[in-house]
């Protein structure tokens, strides 16, 4: 295997509700190589988003270890975890998660505001990434003035603006028609060719086909590690 960027070892995640413990992940292990394009498939409730949140440093496992570039981040504090997330991870969600009263370019700039980048640099970076995803003419539009596919391209631009090494996309085409979905996948494919590591969750075999490897989850475990789907 090529150089590893991400590894999880025997990770379990338990959610406690009303005194009952639910095991959303059971002893999941996974290695992801630098530059890999991986798809995660599996039925609703099988733990895909839970796994993505742990990979993306949005949540911690109940048990097990998480390594990014061989660094054990399982016991990182909140601040440290946020810093790792800002450095390594770009997240794209099914629901776009854009700020509604904020323009395209300002939505994309936002992660750079948090990382205290100078305003001039922020603006030019956001613009150039929006041009790259084909939205150079929509900088001042609000999300409601964009199509679903365009909104998702804004979300991808926002995920990219910090130059993350790993792009996590949880059902990025789930709310899109198939043409817009394929446009989004072409952008992710291009990012893969440029060397980004991409982890994609999808229900759609046509979408998973863009990935070079697919793993399947059922009931909180990874059941198969196939090559090409
Ligand atoms: N915060 C939470 N508290 C309690 N249970 C949770 C929580 N988050 C997820 N779960 C449970 O964990 C299981 C896995 O959820 P998860 O969101 O990872 O599934 P998924 O594979 O992403 O499903 P989908 O394809 O529908 O998005 C589900 O049974 C869910 O109800
Ligand atoms: Mg999910």
Automatic annotation (TrEMBL):
Top-level taxon of origin: Bacteria
CDD domains per the UniProt record, alphabetical: ABC_MJ0796_LolCDE_FtsE
What Pfam families does this protein's entry cite? ABC_tran (PF00005)
Fetch the SMART domains from UniProt.
Answer: AAA
Task: Give the residues annotated as coiled coil.
Answer: none
Known InterPro entries for this protein? Answer: AAA+_ATPase, ABC_transporter-like_ATP-bd, ABC_transporter-like_CS, ABC_transpr_LolD-like, MacB-like_ATP-bd, P-loop_NTPase
Question: What GO molecular function terms would the record report?
Answer: ATP binding; ATP hydrolysis activity; transmembrane transporter activity
Provide the alphabetized UniProt keywords.
Answer: ATP-binding, Nucleotide-binding, Transport
Task: Name the GO cellular-component terms.
Answer: membrane protein complex; plasma membrane
**Which residue numbers delimit the ABC transporter domain?**
6-229
Q: What PANTHER family does this protein map onto? A: ABC TRANSPORTER ABCH.1, IMPORT ATP-BINDING PROTEIN
- The name under which this protein is listed is Macrolide ABC transporter ATP-binding protein
Q: Which organism is it from?
A: Candidatus Gottesmanbacteria bacterium RBG_16_52_11
